[in-house]
Structure formats: C-alpha cells, structure tokens
Design a protein that fits this description.
Distance between the termini of chain A: 21 Å
Number of domains of chain B: 2
CATH superfamily of the largest domain in chain B: NADH:ubiquinone oxidoreductase-like, 20kDa subunit
CATH architecture of chain A: Up-down Bundle
Order of helices and strands of chain A: EHHHHHHHHEEE
Largest sheet of chain B: 5 strands, parallel
Helix content of chain A: 55-70%
Radius of gyration of chain B: 27 Å
Number of strands of chain B: 11
Helix content of chain B: 25-40%
Strand order of the largest sheet of chain A: 1-2
Shape of chain A: elongated
Order of helices and strands of chain B: HHEHHEHEEEEHEHEHEHHHHHHHEEH
CATH class of the largest domain in chain B: Alpha Beta
Low-confidence stretches of chain A: none
Number of helices of chain A: 8
Oligomer: heterodimer
Largest interface: A-B, 55 and 58 residues
Largest sheet of chain A: 2 strands, antiparallel
Chain lengths: 236, 354
C-alpha cells in the first residue's frame, strides 16, 4: 500500500465535461435512432403528443450542448492553466513513445507497463483522435441536415453547410453518414469503457471511481509534490 | 394577345405568376404589361434529347396559364419535334433561322449522350453537336426535367451511354428545373421572370431557381402535422394512409427533396404523389435514381466500401461493426482473465516500471 498514494487527478470541470459529453452522446444516439425509425407514439389519435417534434427538439438542444462541451474540453486540453492534458489524452511525443510498450502489453507480449497518467496510449493515439474525427463528421452533417433559421439561413440551399452535401454524396449520403455515427460511437464507447474496466481490475487503482470523484491511486514517485500551500510544484 | 384569352383570364394568369415568383400583387399590372409588350414573343427552341417526352406531357397539362395560352400568347415555340407543324427539312431550316437570329430561349428536355455519342442522333448530328449548335446563340438555356439537369434515370450506374445533364455535358450555365416530370408552373414562371426583368431568376448552387426550390417537400407537406405527432403509415392500403398519416416510415424522401410540389400540386392542381398516399421518391434531387432507390425504404441500401457492386443496408454495416468490436473486446477480456491480469498486480510490483 505504501508505494501508492491517492491523488486528486481530475478537476471537477473535467469530470463534468466527461459526463456531459458521454450523456449527450447517449441522448443523441437514442433520439437520433427515434428520428431514423420512430418506434413509439404517445397520446391518442385525436389528442396526440408531438413526439417527433419533442424528440427532434431534444436532439438539437443536446447537439448544441455536445458541441459546446467538446470545444471547451479541447480548449482546456491545450490551454488550461491547471491541467493542460493533451499530451496524456492525445497523440503527442509522450503518448507515441509509450505506444509500442502499451501495444505489446495489451497483446500479452509483456507483463507490465509504465505509469499512464490519464488514458492509455492506445486511447490517446487512436481512439480519442477517431472520436474527434467523428465529432467533426457528426457536427458537419448535423448542421447540413439542420433546417431552420439558427445562426444562418440554413433552409437556403446555398447555406454555409451546402458543401457538406458534395463531400458526403448528396442528401442520402449525408443522412447515411449521420446514421452510421450511432454505431461508430457505440464501438468507440465500448472500447473506452473496456479499457477503463481493464485498468480498474488489473491495477486496482480506483480508475472507475476517479471519473466520479477525481481521486486515483498513483505510484508515489509519479505523485505530484505539493508545497505547504498545497499547490502542485512539479511533475505530471 | 391571342383573341381566345379573355382579359380576365389573362390577368388571372399574371396574378398567379406574381404569387409564384413571390412578388406582391402590385406587380400584376407590370407583368401584364411585360407580357403584352412581348409583342415579338420570345422565340423558344425546345430540344428533345434522351428523354421520354414526359416533360412535354407535363408542360401540356399546364393550367393557369393553359398550354394554349403559353404557346399562343406568351412564347413563340419555333421548334418542338412533337408538336411543331413543320417536318423534315422545313423544321431544321426553321431551327437554323432561329439560331441565326439569336436571342432565343432554349428549353432542353432529356440527357446528352457523351459516352456513346451515336446513341442519340438528331438530323444526322450527335446529341452533343446538336445541343451545342442549338445553344450557341441562345439568350438563356433552361434545362427542364431531371434528365436535362442531372442526367436522369439513364444516367443510373453504370451509365453506358454516358448520359449527362446539358450543363455538365457542354460546360455551360443553365437554369435547372429538375423533376420527373418538372412542374409547368416553374417553367412558365422562369420564362415570365425573364420577360419581366430581362434576366434569369436567382439560382442556387445546383442551378435551380430559388423561388421554387429553396424549400423541401417536407416543409410544406400536408401530412407534416402527423410527422410531428409521431403518427405514421405502417403499411400501404391501411386506414392510416387514408387518414393522411405521414409516409416517413414508408420511405418518403420528402425531407430530402427540394421541390414546390406540395404548393403547386399536379394534374391541373388536383393532387400530388404524397396526397394520393405514395411516398415522395425525390425525383427532383440529383442522382435520385441511384441514391434514393429502393424508394420505399427510409435509408436505402448503400454500396459497401471495397466491394464493387455489393449493396447492403446501413444497419447491417453498423451492426457488423459493433459485433466485431464486442467480439474483439470479449476475446481480449477472456485472454486478460486467463492471464491473471484481472486479479490485479502484486503490491510489490507497483510503480516499479517507468
């Protein structure tokens, strides 16, 4: 026990953003699937509930929250004053250096690996960039499909996003790609949760709990050294 | 002005056109004036290329203005293979005279054969040469119908004749009025716009007049309220269909199709596809023949990347992806458990590696 100490590794803003993004993806996937295939109705024939309207409204609101959350998370990953962690969760020299070791660890070619501060290098180099790519596709195709006067005249066929239709193969292509995102994010989320589970079980370092309360067990030599003020002085 | 058109009917025509072009009723007298002053009615050359003549059929079904009013009062149709009086050399001489005079409007119907030029020969010329010659001196080229605008059903993959729209085949700017068939109101309004303002109407990125094609079928659909309430037709011939429920689940492409259909209607303004209980197949959109078929599915099958000629549903591709991921994760989890990793590391090894 003595060679590991509990460290407050995640700021509450990061925890909140994580759950905002994850929650919004789940809501967007469910509402998006309803828009694709309306599988229930509410109310009677003469007094119907405007289900589709409400579901689409929810989809648009949640999409806006997702976009905001992803942008804020990205901004903080690079420019945060207290935890600019893009080197830990994105492709960086640090994560690329740790990648071969991590791959051979996950392929059972070696028994242990160096300490990973946040996500493992496979997540950092492959999965998170892929997620970003699919956020971009989701946002672009979503805005192209969005009809209404929001920031711009989006009903006009000459709208700001009409070029997206040329890239993704017309009306049907944009819809099909936007629909694929449900499945793609299901895969990525599955991989993400599995890695977290694996780390929790194999390291016993409270990884699952850390995304709720921020505290994780960290090897003593990687723990940040704190001064009298409690502020971090060096090391990540 | 043709004597058979009463003043009242003529002003009704002008009023209808003003409404369709989005102009106020104050414009009606000016439209009437423009049409009356077109004493020398604009000469129109109608090219019939690779098409089924359905566009002409649709044009002939025009009301307010009727076909007779258009042909006798608004335009001077100098060349139209189906309905012109002249034939043979006379007809071609008529065409040549019109071309030499210039300032005419070309209405093109049907696709141009670029892959096999001999697939369509008119008066001994290939469709490319013929179309290029006929449009060479034109004041405006109006491509009507999905064939003349985007290639049409004969451009369906693998498109052996190389069918292309007039704009693509010749590399010229055209006003595109797509539709299979196109709406006569849109054609006539475009011509009247040209007579009234001396220029073509505002076009969108696909060459379509924005006064008609800036909104989708879905935006103005009479069944739209049922879409919003989650009331859908589940099968053809059902009670729900007769009640006017939404055809979204039957594969309606209304949400994807830019068209004024719900507003202008068809068959002398009696009804339209969705009104009769058939989902919109999106005949006014580019590549609808490839991308929107099967027409009765919400998301039709898509080509599988890497497998030429293989089509499957997006659901199948997506669920295969998820199944593969679940299998991969599952196998790795079993292997991790078998290797004893899931039990956690012995304490002494903690942090020994860096």
């Amino acid at each position: 026990m003595s060679d590991r100490i509990a460290v407050k590794q995640r700021h509450w803003v990061y925890i909140m953003l994580h759950w905002l993004i994850g929650g919004m993806i789940i809501v967007l996937a469910v509402t998006g699937f309803y828009i694709h295939k309306p599988f229930f109705t509410l109310g009677s024939e003469t007094d119907p509930v405007m289900v589709m309207s409400w579901i689409r409204w929810t989809h648009f609101i949640c999409a806006a929250i997702l976009i905001e959350s992803v942008l804020i998370r990205l901004e903080m990953a690079f420019f945060s004053h207290f935890d600019a962690d893009w080197r830990d969760i994105g492709p960086s020299r640090k994560s690329l250096k740790a990648l071969p070791e991590a791959l051979s660890y996950f392929l059972f070619l070696r028994k242990d690996h160096r300490y990973w501060r946040k996500a493992n290098p496979v997540m950092a180099v492959f999965v998170f960039p892929l997620m970003l790519l699919f956020y971009a596709i989701a946002i672009l195709t979503g805005f192209a499909l969005f009809e209404g006067t929001f920031f711009w005249e989006l009903t006009n066929t000459n709208s700001l996003f009409s070029w997206v239709y040329d890239v993704f193969g017309g009306q049907q292509g944009v819809r099909t790609w936007h629909y694929y995102l449900i499945w793609v994010f299901a895969c990525l989320a599955l991989i993400h949760v599995y890695f977290a589970l694996l780390r929790t079980l194999s390291e016993r370092d409270r990884t699952f709990r850390s995304i709720l309360n921020g505290w994780r067990l960290v090897p003593r030599k990687h723990a940040p050294i704190r001064g009298a003020s409690g502020r971090k002085k060096r090391g990540k | 002005m043709h004597p058979h058109i009463s003043r009242r009917a003529f002003l009704k025509l002008c009023g209808g056109t003003a409404a369709y072009l989005g102009l106020s009723q104050a414009w009606v007298p000016r439209i009437a004036l423009a049409l009356e002053q077109a004493a020398k009615r604009p000469p129109v050359v109608w090219l019939s290329l690779m098409a089924c003549s359905g566009c002409l059929e649709s044009f002939a079904k025009s009301v307010n203005p009727s076909t007779a009013e258009i042909l006798l009062g608004i335009i001077s149709l100098n060349y139209q293979e189906t309905i012109m009086a002249a034939a043979g050399k006379d007809a071609e001489a008529n065409l040549q005279a019109t071309i030499e005079e210039g300032g005419y409007i070309v209405i093109a119907e049907g696709a141009v054969a670029t892959g096999i030029p001999e697939a369509l020969m008119i008066a001994g010329k290939t469709s490319i040469d013929y179309t290029r010659e006929a449009t060479s001196n034109a004041a405006a080229v109006v491509a009507i119908g999905t064939c003349a605008t985007y290639g049409g059903v004969q451009a369906m993959k693998p498109n052996p004749t190389g069918a292309k729209g007039v704009s693509d085949a010749l590399g010229i700017e055209t006003v595109n009025i797509p539709g299979c068939p196109p709406n006569p109101d849109t054609i006539v309004s475009t011509i009247v716009h040209y007579l009234l303002f001396g220029k073509l109407p505002e076009l969108d990125g696909k060459g379509r007049p924005t006064f008609a094609f800036s909104q989708k079928v879905h935006d103005n659909c009479e069944r739209r309220a049922h879409f919003d309430s989650g009331q859908y037709v589940e099968e053809f011939g059902s009670e729900e269909e007769a009640k006017g429920y939404c055809l979204y689940k039957m594969g309606c492409k209304g949400p994807e199709t830019h068209s004024p259909c719900p507003l202008t209607l068809w068959n002398s303004k009696q009804n339209w596809c969705v009104g009769s209980g058939n989902p919109c197949i999106g005949c006014m959109e580019p590549e609808f023949w490839d991308k929107f078929a099967g027409f009765y599915e919400r998301l039709p099958d898509v080509p599988v990347p890497g497998f030429v000629g293989v089509k499957t549903s997006a659901d199948y591709i997506g669920s295969t992806l998820v199944t593969a991921t679940v299998a991969g994760v599952g196998i790795h989890a079993i292997a991790s458990a078998a290797s004893g990793r899931m039990k956690g590391k012995p304490e002494s090894e903690e942090g020994s590696e860096d």
